[in-house]
Amino acid sequence: MLFNLLASKLSKNLAIDLGTANTLVSVQGRGIVLNEPSVVAIRRRDRRTSEVWIGEDAKKMIGRVPGSIDVFRPLRGGVISNFEMATLMLKFFIQKVHGRRSLVRPRVIISVPSGITPVELRAVRDSTLNAGAHEVYLVQEAMAAAMGAGLPVTEPMSNMIVDVGGGTTEVAIISLTGVVYSNSSKVAGDKLDVDISEFIRKNYSILIGLSTAEQIKQMVGRAYQDDEVEEIDVKGRDLMDGIPKTITINSQDVTMAIMDSVNSIVDSVKVALEACPPELAADIIDTGIVLTGGGALLKNLDKRIRREIGVPVIVPDDPLTTVARGAGMMLEDLDLLREVAST
After folding, report:
1. 259-275 and 301-309 helices cross at what angle (nearest 10)?
2. What CATH number did the domain enclosing 200 receive?
3. Cα–chain-centroid distance for residue 19?
4. Closest by alpha carbon to 85, among 48, 39, 126, 138?
5. Dist. CA 135–CA 4, nearest whole Å
6. Which of 60, 134, 203, 223 is an S-S bond match for 300, by CB 3.0 to 4.6 Å?
7. In total, how many domains does the chain have?
8. Contact 314/330 with Cβ under 8 angstroms?
9. How many angstroms separate the most distant Cα atoms in the chain?
10. Most confident of 9-13, 132-136, 254-258
11. Same domain, 91 and 128
């Protein structure tokens, strides 16, 4: 007990955006200090772990490793799918921001999707405690994103947030530090990558990895096609003869590939507005919809939502870090944190 108390006093309190694609860590008083892929790679010899790579080093290995190395993504759809690897990854990140010291027992805030089940919630809490946390608070990603975007979440007015991450899309309406409505969909950035990969396989008979699909999305992806048509060379394996091949696709191809998923994201926004009380819906007409997460960087997504919904759509500066920044702000206000944290 005394050891834990001493360790917690020496530790820096952390806010962690535990994402399917990336994990961001914010330190109290310093802001975001770590942003790395949520990936773990392990080399095993004689059933024992001999080497471990985590974060950026592990992501570089995806699709490029021999049989002796296993690569894991510990989160799927915004929740922990591999408890052991998630604990290993969190412990590594927690110690990294503390300068590799082993005597660390910080207070930790973890953001979670709104659709998380009690079992999944417990997995996140237990994994964080096992990684070395002294105290764990779980907060909804949408609430953290709203705070990180600078929305007045404590006021009696409606704030609508659409957070398109790697594993989930969170749509929430917030008022008076409470979530009036929320829905969570697994149609998000990873699903768009799969869409692109499948489109190229079906239409060009070329097999590409999801990392390549992600690059295509980032470089020429469109939520709807505009007048500008961009092209990109894509390298993959020909399914007919098995040899490497390079093809050229354009932004129109990518728009077609992700069309159904983008429609699903837009539909989730419409459903939220239909479920919103009239007074709060009126606020949204004035305040608009705030679009955050990595998906906010998909070209024309904000314009697509604005065109379909008919209300302003705002993309804050650096939408990738909005959740981590908001969770970090809660470290400075424990009363607010205890009010919004999940039990």
Report:
1. 50
2. 3.90.640.10
3. 4
4. 39
5. 10
6. 223
7. 3
8. no
9. 66
10. 254-258
11. yes
> Are 178 and 314 within one domain?
yes
Q: How far apart are CA 174 and CA 170, in angstroms?
A: 12
Name the amino acid, one letter, at 268: S
* CA angle at 235 for the pair 233 and 239, rounded to the nearest 5°: 130
The pLDDT tens digits for 244-274 are 999 999 999 999 999 999 999 999 999 999 9
* 28 touches 107 (CB < 8 A): no
d(CA 69, CA 61): 9
Question: 26 and 81, same structural domain?
Answer: yes
Check whether residue 222 and residue 127 sit in a common domain: no
CA atoms within 13 A on the CB side of 214: 12
State the CATH number of the domain containing residue 158.
3.30.420.40
Pick the closest to residue 149 from 166, 170, 167 (CA basis): 170
Query: For 177-228, what is each residue's pLDDT tens digit?
Result: 888 899 999 999 999 999 999 999 999 999 999 999 999 999 999 998 888 8
* Residue 303, domain extent: 152-187+260-320
